[in-house]
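User: Structure with coproporphyrinogen III, tokens only please.
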Amino acid sequence: MTAAPTKPFLRALAGETQTRPPFWLMRQAGRYLPEYREVRAQAGGFLDLCLKPALGCEVTLQPLRRYGMDAAILFSDILLVPHALGQSVGFAEGEGPRLAAIRDMNGLRALDFDGLHRRAEPVYETVRRIRENLDKDFPTTALIGFAGSPWTVACYMVEGQGSKEYMHVKQWAFSDPEGFGQLIDLLVRATVEYISAQIKAGAEAVQLFDSWAGALPVDGFHQWVIKPTRAIVDALRARHPGVPIIGFPRQAGLNLEAYVRETGVDGVSLDPGVPAAWASETLKGVTLQGNLDPVLLLTGGAAMRRGVTELLEAMSGRPFIFNLGHGILKETPPEHVAELTRLLRG
Ligand SMILES: Cc1c2[nH]c(c1CCC(=O)O)Cc1[nH]c(c(CCC(=O)O)c1C)Cc1[nH]c(c(CCC(=O)O)c1C)Cc1[nH]c(c(C)c1CCC(=O)O)C2
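Assistant:
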């Protein structure tokens, strides 16, 4: 039997209701912090930052030193899995990710599953270093490992970049579900391996980011979001019982209930469009995380305070982790994050 967790973030995921909910912020390490921009400038490219354990560890700890969040999230990116599978991945300055797009079975066959751990090893080393530092300096802060969900990672692998419509990836999924299914299956296996190695290196909980879950119609949502997530959850539970899993099916809309029921996640992260009172009432048996609009944090002042108060009220009396509904925006004044921390800590 696994011992009951003591860290507030892990207690929330074990189903405990707390009067002061634990908090962390998606993208809490990032460009809104001057100390991040400084390390980022030293690192060279963004991918270099993710692959240099000393630097990745440093930027992970930066927001904790300022605000003392209840969880640290490994500094990395969901596109490290395509990189570790041998796909060419780059981050164009100011433009976002650029990948050598995979559009057919030939592209799929060129991926190198066997090289996954070798290419991802620096990420595992970053996890080990972060965990050592937390144990020493932030003993109540939990370490979150993460990966993108297969659907969202496939969106980038097939489009080759971010996109509004996700036309190519959807066309492939609709016209050749068997072939596209092979890409998804490969990503399920890679994600299980990759997350499992993060857990062995010291991650205490994991989050699966499905940022483009909302791009699929209902059948596709079941096939390409729920099923692969369920397969990952089952495999991780078998290997690492007691390590909680949070899913983030962004903009899942009315598919959210099925996602929670059918994937078996311990926690679900809500985007800002999900009514908190509805979620609190309807999504039982799961810990909720979210979902302050990142622009409210950017705005600060009375608007932010009202948003925080309403959210805390809607989530009172049920297991809850305070977070944003999506990543913190780079224009956010660090002082607003300080005020948010004071509001949550009292
Ligand atoms: C879709 C997605 C990506 N990456 C991620 C997602 C899922 C969550 C979401 O929907 O935002 C996840 C991610 N990316 C990053 C983290 C680090 C941990 C954290 O602090 O939350 C996490 C958890 C760092 C990052 N990932 C990226 C940055 C900015 C890079 C820089 O410093 O220049 C950071 C801090 C780059 C990135 N990475 C990605 C994009 C589209 C971009 C460009 C957009 C941007 O520049 O903000 C892919």
